[in-house]
Write a structure and sequence with these properties.
Radius of gyration: 28 Å
Mean pLDDT: 74
Low-confidence stretches: 1-6, 370-393
Helix content: over 70%
């Protein structure tokens, strides 16, 4: 077939460029201006709303269970759930937060470098591979004249002290932020049915009718799996051990509870902290034998609590690699402080699952071929199919 020549009417092209294309750019510019203006207005509330959304998605199954078992309205169930959480978790959280801030202030303001001493290092330290000699020399220098050694590290210590004081001062604000987010989450749960439908329409608009619903369910599953099964378990375990530290009179109970929270999120055993606490109770504590036995049993049970809570709370159907959770938690803590520790782990996990769901999504032609070849509807490691099955179960 020969090449056909397409004649374009110059008047039609000129009219298109003069009117339609100009209208497109004007509309696009107005949309960009509106989006930027809305973002600047809403920016101060983004962290609060993001954390409230995570809490609402995580607690919504419990809210629905309360509605079905008690016959309460959605608003009343959300109110009672929020009040119960504030009473059960809010009081110990405030106590540990106050202890955390007080411990940091006491350490920084009570430390006198002129009176501090450091014993010489053991000779066996030299035998440590790679760093033994250097570490032995540094420790020896510090033990010879600790005030002079600390004076040489003054810039680094000054920055560290400022960061610690800032963290202590922001503890009250962080607790208020958490409680405010919980209240907003209660409002979201009260309108959960309409909110869920709206979010599903958004996903359908972005990804299409078929995949939009699957991506919406996958996002919901991931949020619940990480927020409840990883962050929630670590938070509950930190509260349990923190209360035990305070009852045992262990110094820096708030700081130790924060350490338990961090190592719980990065999936390390809490026994790394609870076992030294047991040693402190028996070696330094002032309690009697009965009290020490009770505290020992409590620390052991609290240290193993994650082994019981994770099977109960960890979501099914979503397998987020722990390095993703760890990077999200650490990155969130660097960029957003204590609250970023929670939000970062959840958000990076959601992004990872959505990306892998898109990667594992088969084109329509390949999907049809797979269904016809195995007769199983394409069961083969697809994240979206797994999310669907887990949500319906």
């Amino acid at each position: 077939m020969g090449m056909e020549t397409v004649n374009i009417d110059k008047n039609v092209l000129s009219e298109f460029l003069a009117r339609d294309l100009l209208d497109f750019f004007i509309r696009f510019g107005l949309i960009v201006v509106a989006v930027i203006a809305c973002e600047r207005v809403f920016a101060p509330f983004i962290p609060l709303m993001l954390w409230a959304l995570i809490l609402a998605v995580s607690l919504y199954p419990l809210h629905q269970a309360m509605c079905s078992r008690t016959g309460w309205s959605s608003t009343r169930a959300a109110t009672m759930l929020v009040l119960s959480i504030l009473l059960l978790l809010g009081v110990p959280t405030v106590m540990l937060g106050s202890s955390f801030a007080g411990n940091i202030f006491d350490v920084i303001h009570g430390f006198d470098p002129t009176e501090a001493t450091l014993r010489p290092p053991p000779e066996s330290l030299k035998d440590v591979p790679l760093i033994g000699e250097e570490l032995f020399a540094t420790w020896t220098e510090a033990s010879a004249d600790l005030p002079l050694f600390l004076e040489g590290l003054q810039p680094q210590l000054g920055n560290l002290g400022k960061a610690a004081l800032s963290a202590a001062a922001s503890t009250a604000g962080t607790l208020l932020f958490l409680f405010g987010a919980l209240i907003v989450a209660g409002i979201m749960m009260a309108y959960g049915v309409s909110g869920t439908a709206a979010m599903e329409r958004v996903f359908r608009r972005i990804a299409g009718e078929a995949q939009g619903t699957n991506l919406h369910r996958l996002s919901t599953l991931t949020v619940r799996s990480v927020a409840v099964g990883v962050v929630g378990v670590a938070f509950i375990q930190a509260l349990l051990l923190g209360i035990g530290f305070m009852l045992a009179g262990i110094p820096a109970a708030g700081i130790l509870a924060g350490v338990v929270l961090v190592i719980g999120i990065v999936q390390l055993p809490a026994l790394l902290v609870s076992l030294p606490a047991i040693a402190y109770v028996w070696g330094v504590g002032e309690g009697g034998t009965a009290a020490n036995v009770g505290l020992t049993v409590y620390f052991v049970l609290a240290g193993f609590a994650d082994n019981v809570l994770k099977p109960l709370l960890l979501g099914r159907g979503v397998d987020v690699p722990m390095p993703v959770v760890l990077i999200g938690a650490l990155g969130g803590m660097v960029s957003g402080g204590i609250m970023g520790l929670f939000v970062g782990a959840v958000m990076l996990s959601v992004g990872y699952e959505l990306f892998m769901g898109w990667v594992n999504q088969l084109p329509p032609s390949e999907s049809a071929e797979t269904e016809s070849s195995d007769g199983m509807g394409g069961v083969g490691g697809d994240h979206l199919t797994t999310a669907n099955e887990s949500t319906t179960s």
